[in-house]
């Protein structure tokens, strides 16, 4: 189906109002785009933050009467100095197929590969994680996930118990099991992440070794290895919870952190952990540390 995209420039204060108007006028979907490349690093779970200068993007059926929408938009009082907008026709594509065609097998470290479930395995002798991201984040393409995968590839996980805190698609926990871990406990605030992790674990034949929980149900245990790829703010705020999962002498890997945020996260854990040198990839970092005995 062909689509028309309406981009409306507004402010942080009015972004939600403009979104509601576009939906009421027939938009099939609405998204928000930064108008001036001002980064927002870490909204908390459930928090929505808009940019000072926001573009609200409404997606309409190409047959929709856009002249009527524009007329309504121009009459809105909050645009008293005139409305800035742009109409764009989107190419009619099979967007799911387009995304699938651009997702390729990725290698991490010496032995670990992540392969889309619809592609051939490049190296059958390697440690291969077959992944369908589905409803949750985590394909290995983002630097933070890649940093964690490379770290896992370099660990001896034989018979280890691993906690994947913020498991998303399950990619880190499944990789740990494929690399020799005995048991993985995955925790995430999103029920869809639990669903995606279970589906991916089943696809990889490790569903019997992974336990998945929402935070309210998370068990009390101490693991050999804990990985948490979320955001710097929650990592610092939840340091007591995450630290408690690591047994004395166990290992911790943290990511989802920008270089400028690394020290604040280190400070939140340094009383209990001794940190390795920081690993950096495209302005993102991974912190790894061993818990003091």
From TrEMBL:
Q: What is its EC number?
A: 2.1.1.-
Which N-terminal residues, if any, form the signal peptide? Answer: none
- Could you say which residues bind S-adenosyl-L-methionine here? 145, 166, 188, 229
Gene Ontology MF terms: protein-lysine N-methyltransferase activity
Listed A to Z, the keywords are:
Cytoplasm, Methyltransferase, Ribonucleoprotein, Ribosomal protein, S-adenosyl-L-methionine, Transferase
The places in or outside the cell where this protein is found are: Cytoplasm
State the superkingdom. Bacteria
Q: Which InterPro entries match?
A: Ribosomal_L11_MeTrfase_PrmA, Ribosomal_PrmA_MeTrfase, SAM-dependent_MTases_sf
Gene Ontology annotations of biological process type: methylation
Name the Pfam families on file: PrmA
Which reaction(s) does the protein catalyse, per the Swiss-Prot or TrEMBL entry? L-lysyl-[protein] + 3 S-adenosyl-L-methionine = N(6),N(6),N(6)-trimethyl-L-lysyl-[protein] + 3 S-adenosyl-L-homocysteine + 3 H(+)
A single GO cellular-component term on record: cytosol
Q: Does the keyword Cytoplasm apply?
A: yes
Q: Which residues form a coiled coil?
A: none
The record's similarity note reads: Belongs to the methyltransferase superfamily. PrmA family.
Q: What does the UniProt function comment say about this protein?
A: Methylates ribosomal protein L11.
Which named protein is this?
Ribosomal protein L11 methyltransferase
Taxonomy, top ranks, is:
Bacteria, Pseudomonadati, Pseudomonadota, Gammaproteobacteria, Chromatiales
